[in-house]
Structure formats: structure tokens, C-alpha cells
Amino acid sequence: MNAKDAGMFGKKRDKRMSKAEILVVLIIGLIILAVAITGACIERAIEKKEWNKGYCRQHAIPWHCYDMDSQGGRMYSCKQGCNIEVSYGVDK
């Protein structure tokens, strides 16, 4: 058995993660978390702009709630037929 084979078949590799591997997993996890938080903040800002303090942006008519889904989202419409769906608490 030569040195090349010893590493492959001789001694078993330790199953614990090295510090570098832990760091890579941690960085990837933090990047995923940052993307999710940023996406939620952007979506909330979009909904807040559409909500416009309770008034339709096109017609300046107050929104009225006409439906709620099972996840807590609310659907609003103005008397002219514009519709929005709100998931975040911008309407409360």
C-alpha cells in the first residue's frame, strides 16, 4: 500500500466539520437569511405604497375590504374597480 492509497483506504476521515467548513455553512446561512429579510422589507414597502393610507392611488377613493384569505391576507377594492391584496400589517 502506497501513500496515495493510505489516505483513501487506510485511516478513516474524521466526521467532524473543520472550522473552514463551519464558516462556509454559516456564511451561506447568513446570506440566505439576509436575502429573505430584504425581500420581506421590499414587499412590505410595495404594499405600503399601494395601500396609500387607505386610498386608491388612481382615484383617491377609500379602499374597502371585500375578502380575507385563510393566510390572513386581505383584498381591497375601490368603487372604480381597482384591487389590491395586502399581506403585511400596513392597513392596520
The run of helices and strands is HHEEE
Measured by DSSP, the beta-strand proportion falls in: 5-15%
Q: Whole-number average pLDDT?
A: 86
Shape: rod-shaped
Low-confidence segments? none
Taking the sheet with the most strands, its summary is: 3 strands, antiparallel
Helix content: 40-55%
Compose a concise summary of this entry.
This protein is an alpha+beta fold and 92 residues long.
How would you describe this protein?
The chain is α+β, with helices and mostly antiparallel strands and 92 residues long. The protein has one domain. The chain has two helices and three strands. It has helices spanning 3-10, 19-51, and strands at 64-68, 74-77, 83-86. It has a three-stranded antiparallel beta sheet with strand order 1-2-3, with helices on one face. A hairpin with a 5-residue loop joins strand 2 and strand 3. The protein starts with a helix and ends in a 6-residue tail after the last strand. The model has no long low-confidence stretch (mean pLDDT 86).
Outline the fold blueprint.
Layout: H1 3-10, H2 19-51, E1 64-68, E2 74-77, E3 83-86
Features of the shown structure:
alpha+beta; three-stranded antiparallel β-sheet; 2 helices; 3 strands
